[in-house]
């Protein structure tokens, strides 16, 4: 969508016509209507506030008060992008720089016939019926205003369609790079994934920020996982320390399908990450894992929702947080088991490590069960480093900072064990250690 600024909530006091904010030439009427409906929803509900239960601990007033501009075109070279790729990872690649697709940096050689991997706006032109059948079908704008705002103002993003029976042997790496901008900038990114019956794929979304610009990434990824399909999704957040990131993952799963979703929140001034999973058929498996590191005055909020709408489903959640200095984190996990969803097996765990007296965590695991033949459990823990373990490492000649870093990394390392891609696991390991260790020599010890 082409416009000079993204108006603040105050400027949205009355609805404005999309004609005043021109849509891309030739955009289909159905999409224009979707934009208009979403905009009206946002005008009615506005930005989320702390008066809403799901936003009780996360204040986004700066977003509501700031005027954000659309980015200017930025060219980067393949050499510059190479610095941000996962080392030695053989993958397909799409690159977005400051919210704009970089065609010349894509790497799609060897993509199996029939698979479509491109920019969303290109898919709207080349595959309009396929996009229309799936776009906005599972991402409910009613949940909060930011999803509606994304739908109204979505600029670009990626589109992936993997036809039936195709199993991608290489992961898809998606780089969203934000560079220094003169003005506060927003990126309203929309991604759409369709995994047809018996297909298999791995996605790695990597959001990286450079510099100290105040920018806001508002992203929404919709994934349709059809019967017997397998999808593994990674989301890496390495935004700059002045950046805001609000993102939603919306997934709908068919019978006998499998979803593994992994979130690593390592950077950003404020992060709000929502994962909404709906199991629409029987024998569905969902696994959500997450690691979040908050320090300084960072604020990181994870909200997850798994809806067991049919019987014989299973779900596993493990989220771990490390909060230091004046950092603050929020975890709210909801598992819903509907009345006819018998034989559900669900487990949800949230563990947190507080490294300073000022660090803070608000955790709220939830089970909402309306069936009587289920096996469900949930729990949360909050603690500090083990004093005896710290003493043991100190007695072996390590200084206090190194000993603390080793124990903290050991706490985080459990999440890396779920990462099957060796190159990705090594990359994440390096990023986590860099975040945790003040002493660079610790990289050689772990």
Q: Describe it for me?
A:
By secondary structure, the chain is of the alpha/beta class. It has 2 domains: 5-281, no CATH class; 385-446, no CATH class. Helices cover 20% and strands 38% of the residues. The strands form 3 sheets. It has a 10-stranded mixed beta sheet, covered by helices on one side. The protein has a 9-stranded mixed beta sheet with strand order 5-6-8-10-12-14-16-18-20. A hairpin with a 2-residue loop joins strand 3 (92-97) and strand 4 (100-101). Helix 1 runs antiparallel to helix 6 and helix 4 crosses helix 5 (128-134). It starts with a strand and ends in a 10-residue tail after the last helix.
Q: What attributes does this structure have?
A:
ten-stranded mixed beta sheet, alpha/beta, 9 helices, 446 residues, nine-stranded mixed beta sheet, single chain
Quick structural overview:
This protein has 446 residues and is of the alpha/beta class.
Which stretches are low in confidence, meaning pLDDT under 50 for 5 or more residues running?
A: 7-22
Average pLDDT number: 90
**Structural class from helices and strands?**
alpha/beta
Domain module count: 2
Radius of gyration: 22 Å
**SSE run:** EHHEHEEEHHHEEEEEEEEEEEEEEEEHHH
| Count of discrete alpha- or pi-helical segments spanning 4 or more residues | 9
Strand content of the residues, in percent?
35-45%
| Spatial strand order of the main sheet | 4-3-7-9-11-13-15-17-19-21
First-to-last CA distance: 46 Å
The helix content, as a percent range, equals: 10-25%
Largest sheet: 10 strands, mixed
Shape: globular
Give the number of DSSP strands. Answer: 21
């Amino acid at each position: 969508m082409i416009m000079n600024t993204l108006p603040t909530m105050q400027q949205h006091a009355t609805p404005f016509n999309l004609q005043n904010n021109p849509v891309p030439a030739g955009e289909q009427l159905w999409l224009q209507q979707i934009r208009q409906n979403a905009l009206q929803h946002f005008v009615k509900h506005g930005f989320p506030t702390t008066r809403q239960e799901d936003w009780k601990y996360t204040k986004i007033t700066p977003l509501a008060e700031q005027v954000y501009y659309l980015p200017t075109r930025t060219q980067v070279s393949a050499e510059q992008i190479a610095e941000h790729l996962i080392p030695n990872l053989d993958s397909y690649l799409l690159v977005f720089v400051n919210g704009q697709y970089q065609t010349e940096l894509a790497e799609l050689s060897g993509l199996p016939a029939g698979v479509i991997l491109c920019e969303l706006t290109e898919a709207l032109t080349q595959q309009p019926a396929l996009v229309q059948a799936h776009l906005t079908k599972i991402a409910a704008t009613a949940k909060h205003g930011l999803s509606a705002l994304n739908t109204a103002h979505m600029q670009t993003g990626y589109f992936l369609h993997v036809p039936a029976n195709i199993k991608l042997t290489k992961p898809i790496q998606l780089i969203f790079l934000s560079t220094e901008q003169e003005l506060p900038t927003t990126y309203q990114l929309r991604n759409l994934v369709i995994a047809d019956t018996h297909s298999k794929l791995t996605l790695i979304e990597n959001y990286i920020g450079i510099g100290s610009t105040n920018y806001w990434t508002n992203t929404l990824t919709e994934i349709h996982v059809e019967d017997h399909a397998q999808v593994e999704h990674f989301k890496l957040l390495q935004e700059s320390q002045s950046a805001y990131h609000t993102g939603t993952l919306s997934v709908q799963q068919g019978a006998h399908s499998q979803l593994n979703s992994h979130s690593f929140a390592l950077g950003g001034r404020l992060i709000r990450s929502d994962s909404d999973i709906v199991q629409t058929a029987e024998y569905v498996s969902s696994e959500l894992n997450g690691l979040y590191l908050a320090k300084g005055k960072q604020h990181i909020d994870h909200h997850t929702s798994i809806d067991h709408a049919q019987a014989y489903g299973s779900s596993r959640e493990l989220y771990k947080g490390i909060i230091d200095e004046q950092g603050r984190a929020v975890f709210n996990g909801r598992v819903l088991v509907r009345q006819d969803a018998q034989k559900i097996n669900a487990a949800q765990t949230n563990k947190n490590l507080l490294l300073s007296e000022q660090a803070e965590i608000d955790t709220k695991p939830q089970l909402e069960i309306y069936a009587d033949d289920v096996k469900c459990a949930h729990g949360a823990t909050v603690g500090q480093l083990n004093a005896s373990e710290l003493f043991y490492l100190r007695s072996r000649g390590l200084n206090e900072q190194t000993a603390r870093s080793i124990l903290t990394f050991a706490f985080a390392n459990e999440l890396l064990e779920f990462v099957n891609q060796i190159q990705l696991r090594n990359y994440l390991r390096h990023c986590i250690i860099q975040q945790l260790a003040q002493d660079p020599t610790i990289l050689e010890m772990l």
